[in-house]
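Quick one: structure tokens for this chain, please?
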Amino acid sequence: MNLATLLDPVHTIAQQAGDAIMTIYARDFTVEEKEDKSPLTEADKAAHDVIMAGLTALPEAIPVLSEEDAENFSGPDANGRFWLVDPLDGTKEFIKRNGEFTVNIALIENGKPVLGVVVAPALEVSYLAAESVGAFKVEWGADKTGERMPIRVAGQPEEGTTWRVVGSRSHPSPDLAAWLDKLGNHDMVPMGSSLKLCLVAEGAADVYPRLGPTCLWDTGAAQAVVEQAGGRVATLANKPLSYAAPGEKLNPFFIVWGQSA
């Protein structure tokens, strides 16, 4: 499989899902509640349908694990691959209409995200990455086109520098204050959805500590972007965040570092 040639078609699929989301975003919409009390909108469902149609139309058939149809996931294929999809990450931000929501599509191979596409349709920006290809930011307009701009993490802040810490706008964690005390001088940058990881990937933030619950589909695509931009996403035990057991939907707590190990 050629990841370089796969990146553009997957980006197009994600942008098409973004179009479906924005159509609903522009009008009144209903909000339901899932069993876990998290919100669900028409836009989540519409984006899921677009993505499923797009991925299944690609030349190579690969199983899909989507947040909106997780119960029908059959497991990775014989090569350990599967698509990992969050059709609308940041549903709370969507409901608040602050623009900080994304479409996330990742290709997982043997537990590792090797390709990731994150599209923020309200902001008209995308983050793309593939193994051995690199990480890029694309700012686009009505025609959905834009130049790929290579991105890179900021690296280790110099001693005495104030850390730029990106944090969740909708999910504050009681454990975060203690972690930040140990970190030292810092400024907080609030942000929703997988855009938090992307800010680290493009060097706009130094670290993102996530000491609260997330699911696999929340992180896979943006983790690919971070890693291909030279950063890392590690558990509190300093091991790479893994997708080798997709039956376990919840991630452990993790830290996104804008630097290599």
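The radius of gyration is 17 Å.
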